[in-house]
Every structure is written in structure tokens, then in C-alpha cells.
Description:
With about 180 residues, this protein is mostly helical. It is built from six helices and no strands.
Amino acid sequence: MEAQMPKKILGMGYQQRFQVFCALLFLSALFFALAVFVGIPVLAMNPRKFALSFTCGSITFMGSFSILKGPYEHLRSMFTMERLPFTTIYLGSMAWTLYLTCSKGGLKGYAYVMIASVVQLVALLWYLVSFLPGGTMGLKLVGSAMCTILQPVIKVLVRAQAMCIAACVKYFARGSSS
């Protein structure tokens, strides 16, 4: 795979680009974790937190591949005829989500933000399969590496989330019995 990649991009060799790729991939995982552990619990009241975290995760996720392949090569591959529908849907859903998050309110805004986020999620999964070096094998490799790296973080976040939910339930139970 290293032999297929250009020697220098943005003044970085393959090893450095791979390190930045992994760092951006980790950062995108943190944004997605924020969307799940902070955004989903308050989704009914404020979908903007989820949508903004999720979109930032999508942007850093896409940026990680841009660094690995090179920005010009990545954009060129995104705008080929067979990937043009994906590119339009993915970039459009991110722009639509950001626009709706910043401008629309109320029930109608809530529904639009949720629809845009679902479209973005589907496009992100499509992106994973079509752009990951090595295709599905690369997806399995990166997925298992990210699971190994993120497992301790996820355990801590799940425990913290459970403690927060328990504290909220206890608080509301105490308030309703008074």
C-alpha cells in the first residue's frame, strides 16, 4: 500500500501522513463519541449538539483520508463520475446539517436536522467502504485498530454516562417525591 502512495505530500512522507491520518481518525472518533454520549441524551431537547458534533466528526474523518492520499488526489477521486453522486450527497448533507443547525429552530428545524444527520450517516458509511485504502479489508484493519485504541476511552465514557443518568434519575425521583 505504501508503494501506491505518493512519496511526499504537504512536505510529509508516507509515515508522517499515516500518523496524521491516525490522529485525525482518532479526533473524528472523539467527535462521534461526543455526538453519541453528549448529543443523543439531549437529542429530544437540542438536536444541534448531536448534529454539530457528528458533522465535525465527518469533516475530520474526510480530512484524514485527504491527508493520507493527498488533498488534490483525494478531491480528484471524489469528483470522478462514479463517485459524483456520493460526493454531492455527502458534502451536501454536511452543509445542510450545518446550515440547519445554525439557522432553524423549533419542531420543523428538529426534523430537518435529524433528516440531514441520517443522510450524512448513510453517506459516511458509503464513504468508508469506497475510500478506505484496501477496501473492506482496510476497513476491518482500521476498525479493529480503532476499537483496540478506543476501548478504554469508551469504557470510561459509558461509565460516566451511566453515572450521569443515575444522578439525573435520582435527582428527578427526589424532586417528584417532595
